[in-house]
User: Fold this.
Amino acid sequence: MMIEEKDELACSAAAIGQFSDLTCCTQVHRHDYYGLVWLGCGDAHLFVDFTHYRLSAGSLICVAPGQVHAWGNQLNSHEIGIAFSEKLFLQQGQKFPPPFCAI
Assistant:
């Protein structure tokens, strides 16, 4: 699944995918949803807002809407990711009552 495709979350609140190769995401880009990625094995490099992060197995990464980012070298890595929009936390245009809004 390539969660970086424009408007993929336009009709749903979330999308889940597995990655064994993030070459689709090596160009600097941004999107209008949250991205949460867990690095299950291997090593990877991530650039977020012009800061370089070296990642290893077990790393959990969160990229907020609008953050400029790109993946670098992934060495035998495997990632599981979820992308979600703010709609996931809204109910009929209203935020969920506590404790859900404490995220």
